[in-house]
TrEMBL record:
<dbReference type="InterPro" id="IPR036291">
    <property type="entry name" value="NAD(P)-bd_dom_sf"/>
</dbReference>
<feature type="domain" description="NAD(P)-binding">
    <location>
        <begin position="4"/>
        <end position="176"/>
    </location>
</feature>
<dbReference type="InterPro" id="IPR016040">
    <property type="entry name" value="NAD(P)-bd_dom"/>
</dbReference>
<protein>
    <submittedName>
        <fullName>NAD(P)H-binding protein</fullName>
    </submittedName>
</protein>
<dbReference type="InterPro" id="IPR051604">
    <property type="entry name" value="Ergot_Alk_Oxidoreductase"/>
</dbReference>
<dbReference type="Pfam" id="PF13460">
    <property type="entry name" value="NAD_binding_10"/>
</dbReference>
Length: 283
C-alpha cells in the first residue's frame, strides 16, 4: 500500500514496486486521473473505513494532512493488517523529542505520527529526507519568464535530494529485512546554497540563470502574490529558512548509497531530467 501514491515520492515508490513485480495499491482522492502504472490498483485514502487495507503486508505512509488528527484511526487500521510500515516524516521533526515539544506545528504532526507508528507493534522504518529537489520547481515560472530568480536567503545551504532516491530507499525498507526500528536521515550528495542551485539549473537548461536577493518582506509579498504558492505556507517556509540559515551547515548523509548501493543523484542530473519544467528542452 502506497499512501499518497500520486505525490512526489509516493508515485516513485508505486512505480518502483510495480516494476519489481509487487502487487501494489496506491491512494489518490481522484483515482480516475491518478495516472499510475497499469497494474497498480488505485484506491481512495479512507483506509480505516474502506477495506482497502485488506491483505496489505507493508505500507508506505507520508503525511499530507494539516493536523495529526487522522493519525490514530489510520495507524490502528494499518496495524490490524500490515506487518511493516515505512513512514516518510517531515524534515523538521526532531528525533527523540516529544511531539508537544517540537518546534513547529508541522513538526508536531509528524512527530505524533512517528510516535504512534513506533508504538504500533509493526516493524517500522522512518525516513527523514532533506529538502526535495522538486522544491526548485517553485522557481519555474520565474525561470520561464527570464534569467533572474528572485528570492530571500540565497546563501541558505541545503542538501537537496532527488525524490526517486527517497523512493528507492523506501522500496528497500518495504521489501527487505534489516530495516525495522531504524530511522534514516536521507540527503542528496552535495551541500548547495539556493544561489548555486539556480546556477546548476541554468547549466542544465543552457541559460545563464542568476539569483537576485530580496529582503524577507519583499519575498513574503512575492510569495503571497503567487497564485501557485499556498498562502498558509509562506511564513512557515520563511521562518524555516531563517532558522536554518542561523544553524550549522547541513551534513551529507551516505544512507542512500549504503541502503540502495547507488550514489545519491546530483542536482545537475535531476535538473536535466526536469528541464521541461523550467521551459528547457527535455533530455
Ligand atoms: N518538500 C520537501 O522538501 C520535504 C522535505 C522533507 C519532508 N517532506 C515531507 O514530505 C511530505 C510530502 O511528500 P510529497 O512531496 O511526496 O507529497 P506531495 O507531492 O505533496 O503529494 C501529496 C500526496 O498526498 C495526497 N493527499 C493530499 N492531501 C490529501 C488528503 N487530504 N487526504 C489523503 N491524501 C492526500 C495526494 O494525493 P491526491 O491529490 O492524488 O489525492 C498526493 O499523493 C510532507 O509530509 C512533507 O513534510 C517534504
Amino acid at each position: 500500500m502506497v499512501f499518497g501514491g500520486t505525490g512526489n515520492v509516493g508515485r516513485r515508490v508505486a512505480e518502483r514496486l510495480a516494476r519489481a513485480g509487487a502487487a501494489v495499491r496506491a491512494t489518490s482522492r481522484r483515482p480516475r486521473t491518478a495516472r499510475l502504472p497499469a497494474g497498480v490498483e488505485v484506491v481512495t485514502p479512507e483506509l480505516d473505513t474502506s477495506g482497502a487495507l485488506d491483505g496489505v503486508e507493508a505500507a508506505f505512509l507520508m503525511w499530507p494532512f494539516h493536523s495529526a488528527e487522522p493519525a490514530r484511526p489510520l495507524v490502528d487500521a494499518l496495524k490490524r493488517q500490515a506487518r511493516r510500515v515505512v513512514f516518510m516524516t517531515g524534515g523538521d521533526a526532531r528525533p527523540g523529542v516529544a511531539p508537544e515539544l517540537q518546534p513547529t506545528p508541522v513538526a508536531r504532526w509528524h512527530a505524533t505520527v512517528e510516535h504512534l507508528i513506533e508504538q504500533s507493534g509493526m516493524e517500522w522504518t522512518i525516513l527523514s529526507p532533506s529538502t526535495f529537489m522538486a522544491n526548485t520547481l517553485w522557481w519555474s515560472e520565474q525561470i520561464k519568464a527570464g534569467d533572474v530568480v528572485r528570492g530571500a536567503y540565497g546563501s541558505l545551504k541545503t542538501v537537496p535530494i532527488h525524490e526517486d532516491d527517497i523512493a528507492a530507499v523506501a522500496v528497500h525498507a518495504l521489501a527487505e529485512d534489516g530495516h525495522a526500528g531504524r530511522r534514516y536521515t536521507l540527503t542528496g550528495p552535495e551541500v548547495l546554497t539556493q544561489e548555486e542551485q539556480v546556477r546548476i539549473i541554468g547549466e542544465a537548461i543552457g541559460r545563464p540563470l542568476r539569483w537576485h536577493e530580496l529582503t524577507r518582506e519583499e519575498e513574503r509579498a512575492r510569495l503571497l502574490a503567487d497564485p501557485g504558492f499556498p498562502d498558509g505556507f509562506v511564513d512557515e517556509l520563511l521562518d524555516g529558512y531563517a532558522t536554518l540559515i542561523a544553524a550549522p551547515p547541513p551534513a551529507v548523509s551516505t544512507a542512500v548509497l549504503d541502503i540502495t548501493g547507488a550514489p545519491a543523484t546530483p542536482l545537475s542530473a535531476w535538473a536535466a531530467e526536469h528541464a521541461a519544467g523550467f521551459g528547457g528542452e527535455p533530455r
